Amino acid sequence: AQKVTQAQTEISVVEKEDVTLDCVYETRDTTYYLFWYKQPPSGELVFLIRRNSFDEQNEISGRYSWNFQKSTSSFNFTITASQVVDSAVYFCALSSYAGKSTFGDGTTLTVKP
Amino acid sequence: DAGVIQSPRHEVTEMGQEVTLRCKPISGHDYLFWYRQTMMRGLELLIYFNNNVPIDDSGMPEDRFSAKMPNASFSTLKIQPSEPRDSAVYFCASSSGTGYNSPLHFGNGTRLTVT
Question: What torsion do the CA atoms of A32, A36, A42, A44 make, to the nearest 10 degrees?
């Protein structure tokens, strides 16, 4: 069975602070994909990034960066210099060959001005 | 390029009534997923289709729920009869590729309230 754990239920930061959202996953599959999605207050779910199980290269995209460590089954997401518009619920998800995506419970990020 | 389109955006109905939620996936996407989001249970996969064929409906809570995909551009999720515990936001999502390696493109969701 697959499992995704986002231990941080809520995080509150002040604008311009850096913030890291943690994600730990469990799977018996050797081939899988990891995703981060953002759900702003308006409610829609938006795809942010995808990583496959063979690509441990970390990535930076603007203020966003991702740290994938297979040895610890973690796929963490960092926002640098946070902004109020980053306030949202962030979901980590795992998908394997069976086709199902398993989502974590989400981390609610509040960025205060 | 239009995204995933869901209708209605909001639905309020009385217990016992039939509810039909509709979804138009992104053109060219072979996979279609129905998710339900609640505070208690988070995001749950209800059912998904590949090329209009249901692949896994193990997440459908009970026989009151049914889903169809008569063609590549339309899917419905029906609840009959509805109950208050069905109140949730229902999302439709589509994806391309092999399904598991492609990101999900979500619609704006249908907020269902059953009184």
Answer: -20
- Reported in sequence order, the residue ranges of A72-113 that DSSP labels E, i.e. its strands, are 74-79, 88-96, 101-103, 107-112
Write the pLDDT tens digit of every residue in A42-80: 999 999 988 888 887 777 788 999 899 999 999 999 999
CA–CA distance, B102 with B25 (Å, rounded to integer):
14
pLDDT digits (tens, 9 = 90+) for B11-65: 999 999 999 999 999 999 999 999 999 999 899 999 999 999 999 999 998 899 9
Transcribe A44-66 into DSSP letters. --EEEEEEETT----EEETTEEE
Contact A105 B103 (CB under 8 A): no
CA atoms of A10 and A21, how far apart (whole Å): 10
- Which residues in chain B are closer than 8 Å to A100, comparing Cβ atoms? 45, 48, 56, 100
In a 3-state reduction of DSSP, which class is residue A1?
coil
User: Minimal Cα distance from B41: which residue of A?
Assistant: A105
The identity of residue B44, as a single letter, is E
Distance from CA of A101 to the nearest CA of B (A): 7
Q: Pick A47's closest partner by Cβ from B45, B55, B103.
A: B103
